[in-house]
Amino acid sequence: QQKVQQSPESLSVPEGGMASLNCTSSDRNFQYFWWYRQHSGEGPKALMSIFSDGDKKEGRFTAHLNKASLHVSLHIRDSQPSDSALYFCAASESNYAQGLTFGLGTRVSVFP
Amino acid sequence: DMKVTQMPRYLIKRMGENVLLECGQDMSHETMYWYRQDPGLGLQLIYISYDVDSNSEGDIPKGYRVSRKKREHFSLILDSAKTNQTSVYFCASSSLGGGDTGQLYFGEGSKLTVL
């Protein structure tokens, strides 16, 4: 079973709209979460980390973590065509990168 | 410059040939990784290297070996490549620091096709 599960698999959002991505860990040891973004033909790039319960906002991106349910979400406000990409959730037992486990990703498409 | 460089970017090999994928980083990161990415399977960790000559198997090490003789350079070797090793391979590096400093920096990928 995939230890980090993401939903939906794909998502279409109008330009200027809100995209909401979900991620759940089935391993209670995974308490630290990252979001990575991968544009077509490129390597993934770290978007943001979230290690504490609650919200973390960076520009148009807001992550929310609920440690009790091991659920993390990513919300993209005012979506732009450049946000079209594959988004990975990654989790680990510590806030160090060495133990990261990735989900399968959510593909976001922003249409005009 | 905070860059991970992979060579070659594209490679076509015949089954049974040896493959060498090379990766360099300019951030003096202690830890380096090799992942492969396949449709529907996400990113799978092949090997992790904690420093020079300190390598550990990841989740799918079978059919691969690695070499790290300098901190800034990490190689992935496929001895006698198989068709099911056709994939996109990503190298990454990270510092030992935790938190936001512990993020992975990925290269642009090496697309390997084994015929």
* Fraction of helical residues of chain B: under 10%
Structural class of chain A: mainly beta
Q: Which sheet architecture does the biggest sheet of chain B show?
A: 7 strands, mixed
- Computed Rg of chain B: 13 Å
Strand content of chain A: over 45%
Give the helices and strands of chain B as they follow along the chain.
EEEEEEEEEEE
First-to-last CA distance of chain A = 37 Å
Q: State the secondary-structure class of chain B.
A: mainly beta
Number of strands of chain A: 11
What do you see in this structure?
The complex is a heterodimer of chains A (112) and B (115). Chain A is an all-beta fold and 112 residues long. Chain A has no helices and 11 strands. Chain A has strands spanning 4-7, 10-14, 19-25, 32-38, 45-50, 54-58, 61-66, 71-76, 85-92, 101-102, 106-111. In chain A, strands 2, 4, 5, 9, 10 and 11 form a 6-stranded mixed β-sheet that branches. A 5-stranded antiparallel β-sheet of chain A has the order 1-3-8-7-6, with no helix packed on it. In chain A, a hairpin with a 4-residue loop joins strand 7 (61-66) and strand 8 (71-76). In chain A, 36% of the residues are buried. With 115 residues, chain B is mostly beta strands. In chain B, 0% of the residues lie in helices and 56% in strands. Chain B is built from no helices and 11 strands. The N and C termini of chain B lie far apart (36 Å). Chain B has strands at residues 4-7, 10-13, 19-25, 31-38, 42-51, 54-57, 65-70, 73-78, 87-94, 105-106, 110-114. The chains are: A mainly beta (112), B mainly beta (115). Chain A binds chain B through residues 34, 36, 41-46, 49, 51, 88, 94-98, 100, 102-105, and chain B through 4, 31, 40-43, 48, 50, 90, 92, 94, 96-100, 102-109.
Keywords:
heterodimer, A: 112 residues, mainly beta, six-stranded mixed beta sheet, five-stranded antiparallel beta sheet, 0% helix, globular, B: 115 residues, four-stranded antiparallel beta sheet, 56% strand
